[in-house]
Amino acid sequence: xxxxxxxxxxxxxxxxxxxxxxxxxxxxxxxxxxxxxxxxxxxxxxxxxxxxxxxxxxxxxxxxxxxxxxxxxxxxxxxxxxxxxxxxxxxxxxxxxxxxxxxxxxxxxxxxxxxxxxxxxxxxxxxxxxxxxxxxxxxxxxxxxxxxxxxxxxxxxxxxxxxxxxxxxxxxxxxxxxxxxxxxxxxxxxxxxxxxxxxxxxxxxxxxxxxxxxxxxx
Length: 218
Ligand code: CO
Fold this sequence. Notes:
By secondary structure, this protein is an alpha/beta fold. The relative contact order is 0.13. The protein is globular, with a radius of gyration of 19 Å. Helices cover 53% and strands 13% of the residues. The protein binds cobalt (II) ion (CO).
């Protein structure tokens, strides 16, 4: 049987490195975590949350799934969001999509892949909502990029509509939502501009971000 000893060795080397730079690092972290950010991103191995924003362990609370989808009946995602907002009191929730997303591509192509087709149906719902706009684009690459962006905007809106965020805003808790997209080919994130920290700003940010995506490409 093949073992994963190389990964264990990597781990030992990593922990030693951290320890030598900051001897009390793990002891301090073990006592408590107080991240200011919740990252909701894609499971894609090329989009590692902490590395992209250069944050250390303890600084970023993370939920990842295929195509960074936020579904109102997904207890897993909702539990992460609820714990992050109510208990950890994060101040920012970032939904981070990425160009070249295999989940978005599969949703576009509609080729059967198994159980995951049901999950990707949520991305297809977003595509259906913008069917006319996506069909007006010159090529498939453009349509796929725009759908990656539109999916982020839709999922930020879903985060905003949860009872968790609605309740936090109603009691005056500072909480801002953001939609970002990450480029696999240059390692850079772009802010899609939906920034929302209240129900009123959500509507304005949502409309502006949609207009920027669907208007700029026309
Ligand atoms: Co992806």
